[in-house]
Design a protein that fits this description.
The complex is a heterodimer.
Chain A (H helix, E strand, L loop, with lengths): L5 E10 L2 E11 L4 E5 L6 H8 L7 E6 L2 E2 L5 H7 L1 E3 L12 H8 L8 H5 L7 H19 L15 H14 L4 E5 L7 H16 L4 E5 L3 H7 L2 E6 L2 E6 L1 H6 L1 H8 L4
Parallel strand pairs in A: 3-8, 3-9, 6-7, 7-8
Antiparallel strand pairs in A: 1-2, 1-4, 4-5, 9-10
Helix pairs in contact in A: 3-6, 5-6
Chain B lengths: L7 H4 L5 H16 L6 H26 L7 H17 L5 H23 L4 H21 L9 E2 L3 E3 L2 E3 L2 H24 L1 H11 L1 H6 L4 H27 L1 E2 L6 H14 L4 H17 L9 H13 L8 H15 L4 H14 L3
Antiparallel strand pairs in B: 1-4, 2-3
Helix pairs in contact in B: 3-7, 3-10, 3-11, 3-12, 4-5, 4-6, 4-10, 5-10, 7-8, 7-10, 8-10, 11-12
Classes of the chains: A alpha/beta, B mainly alpha.
């Protein structure tokens, strides 16, 4: 069997008596934007947590470029090339923007204990490492137009900016697969428009495959090539956006049942 | 004013010639100090330097990685006993015994770091507290270590240089301290330091960004214990005689207090905190000699606080100064420093 770029098979996980995910399966092709939709509590973020290794699924498996991802630890999964953002921002609030995004370079940097401790002058190993990767981060800061908050501590920045910094941090990891958990939540329409452009750019220019959770239907329909709808942890339907939008069960889940 | 031209300036130690000048001035005056002050103050400086090393190491654990330790007197004891025993019983030279003992302390730090992976906050505090208490009990039982009677510490000799005065010891210690501080500062500014801070601020995000939490949390314990071990080893030579009773819970708490009073997550804070608390600790012992105040405190203590009289009277003042600092500046001495700096930078506005 030919292994696809990213594949989730019969994924199930339960917490106590609550079945958070039941038999979720889908495959993704390299380079596409794949969206997961569903009402609050449907299990979307749980799915992300399983993929990034924070939860261990009870059944089923997750394969990324042919390699098993489930049962690996989050940091190993990150090293395999899967990065993510969080629905509730998880930034390092006592670092500035630059340092936050620098942490995304962690797996690419070489400096260990000895070189780090003995950094001396700009030609030392650790300094070269820093300079080289700060340049990379600067490119990301330019790309996301974060120059004016470059040296500001992130804790006090506006919500939308924090979301962007999180995106920047994930990009700094140079992932092959990027998981975006409601990147537009809490944004005004102008910020949303910008975010949509950036996501398209990430797909087109950087060639990164994107798995997206989003509530904004318009956005989902605009940018994704395929959509998976889940409700109460169970897959409802999977298809191109127009099909999913017409699906009766999806409408029911979102709008409620009419008499 | 704050224009940067390249990325190295984000991480370099000397940001301007002015800073270089002040650093050189400071280090120069540290080395010249023994020629101008009496022996007692050299002893004080040694005592402070040793505590600065511990506080810096502990700050990596508590301030930067967000874990807690109430057992650092244990690592301090391992350093002190390790160095002494390696020199006396194993016949190792000082230059091998000190790092050897510190490495043993680091190993214990690593081991203590393992349960710390599952524990947080108050639970971790109790676990480390247990470690600190146990280690002195165990040391007291081992005959090789001198048991309860303690053990004499030999003079340091490096090659043909025999260090038997406080002054010579001061030069050795101050050099060591400068290097350890410099190492720590670099560590925090580079890749691994960022990983430590990331774990403190948002461990889940750090993990999904590829930071190995198990490795970094245990490493923080090990490095922190290493610093405490070095400091303990040096402390043995200050005391010339060590026994298990020296390394008490109160010592662990004082180490932690230095870090907190100084300011969590700030090296400047660790230095200031250790200096202030050591200074107070030594100075307040003589508080009863102060006219009027001493009398008054003596009465206070005898009438209200202790049955046996004035034994711990200095801790009343000590405690109230600490409470005062934390009350008015939760960021500790570092917070005061930041405010002062800001004031001068924006002066006269």
């Amino acid at each position: 069997m030919e292994s696809s770029f990213f594949q989730v098979d019969n994924l199930s996980i339960s917490f106590g008596g609550i079945k958070a995910l039941q038999d979720v399966s889908f495959t993704m092709d390299r380079g596409e934007i794949f969206s997961v939709i569903g009402p609050n509590g449907a299990g979307k973020t749980t799915l992300f947590n399983c993929i990034s290794g924070l939860y261990k699924p009870n059944h089923g498996d997750i394969r990324f470029q042919g390699k098993k991802v489930d049962n690996e630890k989050p940091d190993i999964i990150a090293k395999m090339g899967i990065a993510r953002t969080f629905q509730n921002i998880e930034l390092f609030s006592n670092m500035n923007t630059m340092e936050n995004i620098m942490l995304g370079r962690h797996i690419h940097m070489q400096t260990g204990l000895f070189h780090g401790m003995t950094m001396w002058g700009r030609s030392s190993f650790a300094a070269k490492d820093e300079i080289q990767h700060r340049k990379k981060v600067e490119e990301i800061i330019d790309f996301l137009e974060l120059q004016n908050v470059r040296d500001k501590f992130v804790g006090a920045l506006p919500y939308g900016t924090q979301k962007l910094i999180e995106l920047g941090r994930a990009l700094a990891l140079e992932p092959t697969l990027l998981l975006l958990d409601e990147p537009c939540a809490g944004m005004n329409s102008e910020e949303k428009q910008d975010m949509i452009f950036w996501i398209k750019d990430i797909q087109d220019d950087l060639g990164i495959t994107i798995l997206l959770i989003e509530h904004d239907m318009k956005m989902v329909m605009d940018i994704s090539s395929r959509v998976l709808a889940i409700n109460f942890g169970k897959p409802v339907t999977l298809g191109i956006p127009q099909e999913v939008q017409q699906n009766e069960e999806v409408l029911k889940a979102y709008i409620g049942e009419g008499d | 004013m704050d224009m940067k031209r390249d990325y190295f300036e984000d991480v370099q130690l000397f940001t301007s010639p002015v800073v270089v000048f002040w650093f050189a001035f400071l280090i120069g005056s540290l080395y010249l100090l023994p020629f101008f002050v009496s022996n007692y103050y050299i002893y004080v400086a040694n005592y402070i330097a040793i505590n600065i090393i511990v506080a810096t190491g502990l700050n990596l654990l508590v301030g930067y990685t967000g874990q807690i330790s109430l057992g650092h007197a244990g690592f301090f004891a391992i350093g002190a006993y390790g160095t002494t025993v390696l020199m006396v019983k194993a016949g190792l030279p000082f230059l091998l015994a000190l790092p050897g003992a510190a490495l043993i302390a680091a190993c214990f730090g690593f081991l203590l770091g393992l349960p710390a992976l599952r524990l947080e906050g108050p639970y971790l505090a109790i676990a480390t507290l247990g470690f600190g208490l146990t280690i002195t009990q165990v040391i007291g039982r081992i005959e090789l270590f001198g048991g309860r009677d303690g053990i004499h510490v030999p003079d340091i000799n490096i090659g043909s240089w025999i260090i038997d005065t406080d002054k010579e010891f001061y030069f050795l210690l101050i050099t060591l301290t400068i290097f350890l501080l410099w190492f720590m500062r670099n560590l925090i500014k580079t890749r691994m330091g960022r990983a430590f801070i990331a774990i403190r601020d948002a461990d889940i995000a750090a993990e999904t960004m590829g930071v190995n939490i198990v490795f970094y949390k245990t490493l923080a314990f090990a490095i922190s214990a290493f610093y405490a071990g070095i400091a303990g080893g040096m402390y043995a030579f200050v005391l010339k005689f060590i026994e298990p009773e020296i390394f008490t819970l109160l010592m662990s708490i004082l180490f932690l207090a230095m870090v907190v009073v100084g300011g969590l997550g700030s090296m400047m804070g660790s230095i200031a905190g250790a200096t202030l608390l050591c200074w107070l600790d030594l100075k307040l012992r003589n508080i009863l000699d102060i006219p009027y105040v001493g009398e008054w405190l003596k009465n206070l203590s005898e009438n209200w606080f202790s049955l046996t009289g004035v034994s711990n009277i200095q801790y009343i003042i000590f405690g109230s100064i600490m409470v005062g600092i934390m009350l008015f500046e939760p960021l500790g001495l570092y917070g005061i420093w930041i405010r002062t700096k800001k004031y001068w930078r924006t002066w006269p506005f």
